[in-house]
Structure formats: structure tokens, C-alpha cells
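Input/output pair, single chain:
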Amino acid sequence: RTSLIYAGPQDDIYSTAIKKCNSSGPLTVFVSHHLQTKSKKIKSLCRIFSGTLNSDMKIFIFDANESSVQN
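Output:
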């Protein structure tokens, strides 16, 4: 099922972490919906496939057309 979720190489660190649901692996999430609050802030509904997301983390969102991951 990982190949349906992740378009990158199926043997890299991201794919391997997704397959194992590795909570200490790199953070990979699927953003299913964006919500705008009354105060104009954007909140997103996400499903975490690997890694751990904390409320104090700064994350960057790539769209489906992103061809490579920048470190």
C-alpha cells in the first residue's frame, strides 16, 4: 500500500518508515483538509504515517507535484 501513498523510491528511508509505521522515523503525513479559523489561522487535518508530530514543531507542506524532498 505504501506505493499508493508515497511516490518516491520504495526502498528509501521515507518509504521504509511508512511501511513500518516507525514513530522514530522521519515525519511523513497526509494532509486531508485545511480549515480556516475565525481568527484567519489555517489548521490542517492530517494522518501521520511515520514519525512523531509535536505541537511546537515547524513543518513544511509539499504538494503532490513535488518531485523531490529537500533536507
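Residues 36 and 42 are 5 Å apart (CA to CA). The longest helix spans residues 13-20.
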